[in-house]
Automatic annotation (TrEMBL):
Record-level Gene Ontology MF annotations: electron transfer activity; heme binding; iron ion binding
Native source species: Roseobacter ponti
SUPFAM superfamilies assigned to the protein according to its UniProt record, in alphabetical order: Cytochromes (SSF47175)
Name listed for the protein in its UniProt record: Cytochrome c
Coiled coil feature spans: none
Name of one Pfam family that matches: Cytochrom_C_2
Amino acid sequence: MKKLLLLPLSSALALAALAGTATGDGHADKALTAAIEARQAQMTLISYNLGILGAMAKGEADYDAATATAAATTLSDVARLNRSLLWPEGSVQGEVPETRAKAEIWSDAAGFEKSSEDLEAAADALVAAAGTDLAAVQAAMKAAGESCSACHKAYRGPRN
């Protein structure tokens, strides 16, 4: 009789353990998805503010010191978001959907950190230039563009 009770009990425990594992994996998937969505939002904000500054630099929009300063300041703030929360290991292209993050972000963490710091420095230079004049914004935009391009070449994979 004890064996008959133990078999369903052990089966139920095994199923509960598997369900717990599946729930845990689901949570991990949700956490990775949330991190990917957050960093994509960060990139959208960076692109949006660089677009404002770029339009001024190209003469597509009138230079306005207050608008340039607001965009550059926002860019600087967004560039400094905590990367450890946005780039968890395992959120690499090919392993999870909807990301172009290359494995080099984690295998070359020091290089990725340096690229991130380069963006911060370029954003700071834009903040300093933004209220000065159009020529200063144009010069600072060149460095910002180079920073973005270098990071994307090294750490962003191709579109799927």
